[in-house]
Every structure is written in structure tokens, then in C-alpha cells.
Amino acid sequence: MDAEMLGSKDDKTYTRRISQVGNSLSVSIPKDLATMLNLNKGDEIEIYYDKERGEIVMKRANRIPKEVRPEVVMAMNRAISKYDEALRNLKYR
User: Fold this and answer.
1) CA pair distance 76, 18, nearest whole angstrom
2) SpoVT-AbrB domain: from which residue to which, for each copy (predicted)?
3) What is the pLDDT of residue 9?
4) Most buried among 5, 22, 34, 35, using CB within 10 Å?
């Protein structure tokens, strides 16, 4: 199953119980779904209610300003991936 298939009749359906965390309510995301969507601890998502469809919608938050070109973001991500260990080690110097 890939991200494009979400919403098709062949999708696996998950049932989750809502739990209380402090003053908020919480719902977990199944590990295989999080892996498929490349979601990790600390990632941000947007949640809203689609009144027309009567559905709660969750999607990855876009934290990149609209005026930043996609190729700049891709280059930055490549540099961070390539030099991740070196960048992390700088904080111990």
C-alpha cells in the first residue's frame, strides 16, 4: 500500500480508541501507516474538520514558507543528510 492508494476500497482500516493525555485527547497512528507515510516522532501534522464530508482530516504540516523554492529545500535536505553526523558533533565542541 502506498500513499496514493489511501482512500481506496482495498486499504487496511484501523480502529483506534481515543485516550486522554493531560487536558487533550489523543489517537495513535499505526506503525506500518506511519512508516508508509514517513512520519516520525516530532513531526508536525495539521488536523481539521471537513464539514462537507463530515470527516476529520490529518495531513503533514507544511513548515516551509511559500516563497522558498522546492529545489532550495531539496538541496538543503541533501546537505543535512550528507553532513548530519558532522553537524551533530559540532554541538560537543
Assistant:
1) 38
2) 19-66
3) 52
4) 34
- Full-prediction pTM beyond 0.85? no
Q: What is the radius of gyration, based on Cα positions, of the chain?
A: 18
* Between 52 and 64, the higher pLDDT residue: 52
User: How many of the other CB atoms lie within 10 Å of CB of 22?
Assistant: 6
Question: How high does pLDDT run on average in the chain?
Answer: 85
Structurally, what CATH architecture does the domain formed by 13-61 represent? Ribbon (2.10)
Query: Would you tell me how many other CB atoms lie within 10 Å of the CB of residue 58?
Result: 13
3-class SS of residue 13: coil
Task: Tell me the three state secondary structure of residue 91.
Answer: coil
